[in-house]
Amino acid sequence: MILDARSVCSGATGRNGGHLRPDLYGHIPKYINRGGVRAGAEIAEFEIAHFKALKELILREKIDCDLTLTRTCDVWNNQNAADDAKAVYDRLRLNPELSYMEDVHFTIGKDAETISGVKGAKACSTYTTTTLSPYKLITSLLASTLATSSANLQTNTPVISIKQSDHLYHLVETSRGILRARKVVHANNAYVSGLLPEYAKKIIPCKGICCHITVPKDATASPIGYSYIVRTEDGILDYLIPRPDGSIIVGGASATFRSHKDQWYNNVDDGKLIEATMKERYYENFMQRTFRGWENSDAKIESIWTGVMGYSFDSNPHIGLIPQKSNQFIIAGFNGHGMPVIWLAAKGLAEMLITGKSFEEVRVPMSLPRLFKTTQDRIDRAQNGPEGGDILN
């Protein structure tokens, strides 16, 4: 039984930009500092493994979801930030345990603008990535699963409470009645603390903003050869995904609203745009001011929306058996970075449910990253730590 409080993919999945981009060095130093080199490498390798896993799935199931294998281009327009990024790259590149760094090509200096196509670029790096439509992928998978009668999907059915009736069953109270279930999986990400208050300080709902930019058919614009992460001179970060039809998805801009905490932090209202970003009209003429060769493109915003992500106190998702709860499991807290994490994490969780294996025992085919395991210690650290943890500090 799958219960969805709203309609299928009406939340973050349907609002996702579609960037299946592994983080090969951005947060890896932090993970290495906290868990050691192997722990950091596990996360990068796990994310990279999603290329093959999802490609095989999509081809096997013949899913039309705009799958595109490409390279991503990280761009730094601030010289100090560029120098810092180069230092991180050099340090990781020399570590023999981080062999995946061989795919990363880093350029600093005058050639960065030419390679990236971004005006004022001081440095850039490229590596393999994938883009796709999460909405098309998930709705297709749901349709094929439901066609086999192996699952029962009930939409517009919010869960009100979960109570253990005896040692075998949980009573799942919904707006439409009560169900009995032996095992329960909490896969509601940003909203997980609604039923699990112990995660209220661990996984915080945080709003983001995204837009769809189109270009007139007769316009002149340079080709966009990469997906992007662009960091401006004043520290605003945006991600960009070119679509097969020539349009562009752009999201991010958190620096424009970060100081307006009430508009994004611990906020679940995805029906209202983020006022600070809209007031700045940040995405108007974004392509024209950011990319070389787009000055006369007449690119314009076709639509703009917001979505709610589940951000984790320590930057890592929570996966596995919930401490002090019998046969209740969690898979949540993906920090707006679920694309290269969720599929194999969910596969590992499914193996736990079916076989009774522990977090450490499952293989997908590699082990789940150790820093992803939900534990009482992680919950306690968030409960007793500074507000927001990595999110605000």
Automatic annotation (TrEMBL):
Limits of the FAD dependent oxidoreductase domain: 2-352
GO cellular component, one term: cytoplasm
Matching Pfam families: DAO
Gene3D superfamilies cross-referenced by the UniProt entry: D-Amino Acid Oxidase, subunit A, domain 2, FAD/NAD(P)-binding domain
Official protein name in the record: FAD dependent oxidoreductase domain-containing protein
